[in-house]
Design goal:
Number of domains: 1
Order of helices and strands: HEEHH
CATH superfamily: Protein of unknown function DUF5063
Shape: globular
Helix content: 55-70%
Strand order of the largest sheet: 1-2
Distance between the termini: 17 Å
CATH class: Mainly Alpha
Largest sheet: 2 strands, antiparallel
Number of helices: 3
Number of strands: 2
Strand content: 5-15%
CATH topology: Four Helix Bundle (Hemerythrin (Met), subunit A)
CATH architecture: Up-down Bundle
Structural class: mainly alpha
């Protein structure tokens, strides 16, 4: 695959992650009695990032830490899983619980995965692949 085609693929993924993250910020915090989780196995999509899967990152921007290895495949799978839980609640007409689930998981889990993937994809597209 040439770099331009590959760059387009990663650029589309970056755009989608930015949209998802932006909508996560806009979610209203809804107070419900308990954090709701779906008690079912959620199969994750088969994500093929190939040679650009692994990247380096620091988890906390305000504390000096050694870089750790991140994975775009892991980021995308975790985001998918958390969003799918909310979708399953929504499909059961449990709208308040779905929104609460999305917001809670955005704040503690998938939001961080999205930020990590966004940074990695930006570096990949505009530094590694020189895609403009």
């Amino acid at each position: 695959m040439d770099k331009c085609v590959e760059g387009e693929k990663y650029k589309l993924l970056l755009e989608n992650l930015l949209n998802i993250y932006t909508n996560g910020i806009k979610l209203t915090k809804i107070k419900i009695d308990d954090t709701v989780s779906i008690d079912t196995e959620i199969p994750c999509p088969n994500v093929k990032i190939n040679k650009y899967n692994f990247y380096w990152e620091v988890f906390d921007a305000y504390h000096l830490e050694k870089p750790v290895q991140g994975s775009l495949t892991d980021d995308i799978s975790d985001i998918y899983h958390d969003l799918k839980e909310g979708i399953l609640l929504y499909e059961q007409n449990r709208f308040q619980e779905a929104i609460s689930n999305w917001k809670f998981n955005f704040e503690i889990h998938w939001g961080s995965h999205a930020v990590d993937a966004i940074r990695a994809l930006h570096s990949l597209i505009y530094k590694e692949l020189y895609f403009q």
